[in-house]
Amino acid sequence: MANSAQARKRARQAVKQRAHNASLRSTLRTAIKRVQKAIVAGDKTAAQSIYQESVSVLDRIADKKIIHKNKASRHKSRLSAQIKALAA
């Protein structure tokens, strides 16, 4: 348990920040799942439009260092490749 007032306050702040980060991660996962759902449905135009929205979510969360920028890039690359494969 935290003994100093400063440590108690930092513990309170950490709980709030953890909840906020969890919310952002949930938003990220939802955005990725929306694109994957459109890909499975085979609707290329819908998948592309949803992908564009998801890219901004990925970049925003990577900028806040909730996930690493390379992880965001990897997700974008793989989703983009799957959308391109729909035409074939």
From TrEMBL:
Region feature Disordered, mapped onto this chain: 1-22
One BP annotation, GO: translation
InterPro entries from the UniProt entry: Ribosomal_bS20 (IPR002583), Ribosomal_bS20_sf (IPR036510)
Domain of life: Bacteria
Pfam families given in the database record: Ribosomal_S20p
Function: Binds directly to 16S ribosomal RNA.
Name of the protein in its database record: Small ribosomal subunit protein bS20
Gene name per UniProt: rpsT
Gene3D superfamilies, per database record: Ribosomal protein S20
Gene Ontology CC: cytosol; small ribosomal subunit
Keywords for the protein's UniProt record, in alphabetical order: Ribonucleoprotein, Ribosomal protein, RNA-binding, rRNA-binding
Biased composition (Basic residues): 7-19
GO molecular function terms attached to this record: small ribosomal subunit rRNA binding; structural constituent of ribosome
Source taxonomy: Bacteria, Pseudomonadati, Pseudomonadota, Betaproteobacteria, Rhodocyclales
Family as reported in the entry's similarity comment: Belongs to the bacterial ribosomal protein bS20 family.
